[in-house]
Amino acid sequence: MFKIAALGLSSAALIATSGAALAQRPFEQPADARYGYAQISANKLSAAETQLDARRAAEPREPSVLLNLAFVYAKTTRTAEASALYRDVLALPNVQMELGNGKPAWSHDLAKAGLGRSALMASR
Fold first, then answer.
1. pTM summary value
2. Which InterPro entries does the UniProt record give (predicted)?
3. What domains sit in the chain, N to C, each tagged with a CATH number?
């Protein structure tokens, strides 16, 4: 499955949507709205977390949801929780994603980068 991601205002922000979201029906929310893009871009992390928690209940193995929620956790200094989600992504199949700048990235590479940032933050 092909994944799409966009960069938020922070260079570290990963905002992702699933390939299924690309084929959404007209009555559904836009994919970026379902995966917290607007909230994270506006630095409304609490709203993003609420939305992503709901998406995670519906899609518990969706790397897009896990990566975005891990980003929110990391930005709100919950590094242990963020690290756990990044490890969850590593336990899933490695899928290709597209960053907001159009460049491709693999979900495992993004999770490893997130783990590295979490380890750095935890050591401070």
1. 0.75
2. TPR-like_helical_dom_sf
3. 4-122 (1.25.40.10)
Q: 90 and 108 in contact (C-beta within 8 Å)?
A: yes
Q: Report the candidate in 50, 49, 55, 67 with the shortest Cα–Cα distance to residue 6.
A: 67
Helix (H, G, I), strand (E, B) or coil at 50: helix
Of 80, 83, 76, give the one whose Cα is nearest residue 44. Answer: 76
The 10s digit of each residue's pLDDT in 49-82 is 999 999 999 999 999 899 999 999 999 999 999 9
Residues whose CB falls within 8 Å of the CB of residue 12, separated by 6 or more in sequence, listed in order = 71, 117
Q: What is the sign, positive or negative, of the torsion defined by CA atoms of 117, 98, 84, 47? A: positive
Q: Is the dihedral of CA 25, 27, 32, 36 positive or negative?
A: negative
Q: How far apart are the C-alpha atoms of 21 and 31, rounded to whole Å?
A: 5
